[in-house]
Amino acid sequence: MSRDNDLGKGLLIGFISGSVIGSIIALLYAPKSGKELRQDLKEKTDELMEEAEGYLANAKERATDLMNDGKKKSEKLIAETKVKVDDLLKEAEQVLHEAKIKTNDIISSGKSNLEKESEKLKNAFKAGMDAYKNEQKG
Description:
This protein is an all-alpha fold. The chain has one domain. 96% of the residues lie in helices and 0% in strands. The protein contains 2 helices and no strands. 0% of the residues are buried.
């Protein structure tokens, strides 16, 4: 982008310089009196100044347009990024929620299995103790 600006500046400076030099040479070779020559130089200078001001105004307008376009694009990009981040956060929350549910289910299932096995072990131990007591009595 700065390369385009440099090229535009170079063309503008070259155009203005060429116009000024060409006008001066043309006026110097024209057969006119000093007063007429000064008047022509003044008019030509005024014309060139108006042209230069027009080019500058146009360049400022283009620069403003480019900045506004850049600002709009960056605002749009920021808004799109926000939406994507919000979507990712919602997905992450959903995954975490599902993981918690699965973990709780696994823990509940594990507790249930542990209680069943513990009860079996207690019953087997009690049966063994009862058998031992019966053996001792008999």
